[in-house]
Amino acid sequence: MAKTLIAFFSRADENYFGGAMRYVKVGNTEIVVNQMKDLIDADTFKIDMKDPYSPVYMTCIEEAKKDLRKNARPELTSYLDSIDAYDTIVLAYPNYWGTFPMAVATFLERYDFAGKTILPLCTNEGSGMGSSEGDVRKYAPGADVKNGLAITGSYAADAKAAVEKWFAENGLKKGY
């Protein structure tokens, strides 16, 4: 039986919402991931950095920019033993500086995605997928990277219908 993994990076604390800063206990990407759990049978793995970015939004984005410029590979708090059991990986993350946070690169480079399908989902406040789809292809050679879904973070709580349609377009449904 085919198995699906939802791997995601999400950040709570102070976040940017359509022109204003707001403190949140659950990050936008994780809000969308929690909706996914109602739509498909999948295991989940949260990509957490050992040394997380600042809870202050403006400091966080500067730290993320520094990591991107250095092509850093932040250490994660934990790793999966293997992804061999999974055929499909839903990879969800926020858009940081036009792509995914570098902790996602840490995750991607750790495993062999050859022959696997990756569905990228990116939360953002207007910058869409950026270059992240191409970057997923770069860091996960041999994977079949499908067209991603961009979700505006301010509307993450209302993303379920869009995610359900995207899953259906990609052959994922409950029980898959």
Automatic annotation (TrEMBL):
Residue stretches making up the Flavodoxin-like domain: 26-168
Database matches in Gene3D superfamilies: 3.40.50.360
GO molecular function: FMN binding; oxidoreductase activity, acting on NAD(P)H
Pfam families according to UniProt: Flavodoxin_4
Domain of life of the source: Bacteria
Protein name: Flavodoxin
